[in-house]
Design a protein that fits this description.
Blueprint (H helix, E strand, L loop, with lengths): L3 H14 L6 E5 L18 H13 L3 E6 L21 H7 L3 E2 L10 E4 L13 H12 L3 E5 L10 E2 L2 E2 L5 E2 L4 H6 L10 H7 L3 E2 L9 E4 L2 E4 L5 H13 L1
Parallel strand pairs: 1-2, 1-4, 2-3, 4-5, 5-11, 8-9
Antiparallel strand pairs: 6-7, 10-11
C-alpha cells in the first residue's frame, strides 16, 4: 500500500533542496542617437548606467536580456565612452550591439525590468505604448521595476485607467538642476523631474552628482550615473530577498 503522506513529504524535501532558477532581468535601453537640435548633438545610452548594473547582474548569477524598441543597435552617448578601454566592459558593449525588439519578447517570463538612462530615453521610451503596457503588467504582478537617471522617462507612458504609474510613488531621476549643471537644459525636450511631478510623483531630489537611490515598494529609482553601483546593489538585494 502506497504511503501518500510519505511521498508528499519527500516531494516537498526535494523541492526545498532543488537549485532555484535564477531571476531574469529585462534591461530596456534607447535607440535614440541624437538630440533634435540643428547640430544633431549625439546622445544615446549612458554607458555606465547600463554596463555597471549589467556586469553586477551577470556576476551575481542573474539571467539578463537586453531590448530596445526596434531591436537595433543601442547607441552609446559618446560623452560616456570613458569605460571602453577596460576589458571588463566588453560583454556589456556587445549586448548593446545585439538587442531584441521589445514587442517580440515574452516579458512575462522576467522577474524585473531595468531602464538605464542617457538622454536617449527622453526621445523614444518616454512615449512608447509598448513599454507602458509592459510596465503596467509588471506592476500588476508585483514585479520589480527599476530605472536610473533618465531611465524613469520610460515610466511615463504607463497608465492604468488614466492613472499614471508614478502617481503617488516616491522616486527620483536626473534633476532639473543637473540638466543645467551639465549644460543639457537647452537640448532636452523636457525636464524629466517636472514631467514626473506633473504625473503626481513624490520626487526626492539630492544635489547634483550625489548618490541617491530610492526604493518604494516594487519601484527602485536612482538619480544619476554616480548612483549606478548602488542602484545595481539595490536591485540585486531586492531580487535576492
Amino acid at each position: 500500500m502506497i504511503d501518500e503522506e510519505k511521498i508528499t513529504i519527500e516531494e516537498e524535501m526535494i523541492a526545498e533542496t532543488a537549485p532555484q532558477k535564477p531571476s531574469r532581468i529585462l534591461m530596456v535601453v534607447t535607440n535614440a542617437c541624437e538630440f533634435n537640435d540643428k547640430d544633431h548633438t549625439k546622445t544615446g545610452v549612458w554607458f555606465e548606467e547600463f554596463a555597471v548594473p549589467y556586469n553586477e547582474f551577470k556576476k551575481n548569477g542573474f539571467e539578463v536580456a537586453v531590448a530596445t524598441l526596434t531591436g537595433e543597435i543601442a547607441p552609446v552617448d559618446p560623452e560616456s565612452e570613458n569605460l571602453f578601454e577596460d576589458i571588463i566592459w566588453d560583454d556589456a558593449r556587445k549586448a548593446l550591439n545585439d538587442t531584441e525588439a521589445l514587442d517580440t519578447i515574452d516579458s512575462d517570463s522576467f522577474d524585473a525590468i531595468v531602464l538605464p538612462g542617457g538622454h536617449g530615453p527622453m526621445f523614444d521610451l518616454a512615449k512608447s505604448e509598448v513599454l507602458g503596457d509592459v510596465i503596467n503588467r509588471f506592476n500588476r504582478d508585483g514585479k520589480l521595476i527599476a530605472a536610473i537617471c533618465h531611465g524613469p522617462a520610460g515610466l511615463l507612458p504607463a497608465k492604468e485607467n488614466g492613472i499614471p504609474f508614478v502617481s503617488g510613488r516616491k522616486l527620483t531621476s536626473f534633476t532639473n538642476e543637473e540638466e543645467r549643471f551639465y549644460k543639457k537644459d537647452k537640448l532636452t525636450p523636457f525636464f524629466l523631474q517636472d514631467a514626473l511631478l506633473d504625473e503626481g510623483a513624490s520626487f526626492i531630489e539630492d544635489k547634483p552628482g550625489a548618490v541617491n537611490v530610492i526604493t518604494d515598494g516594487n519601484l527602485i529609482t536612482a538619480q544619476n550615473f554616480q548612483s549606478a553601483k548602488n542602484f545595481a546593489k539595490a536591485v540585486i538585494d531586492y531580487l535576492a530577498y
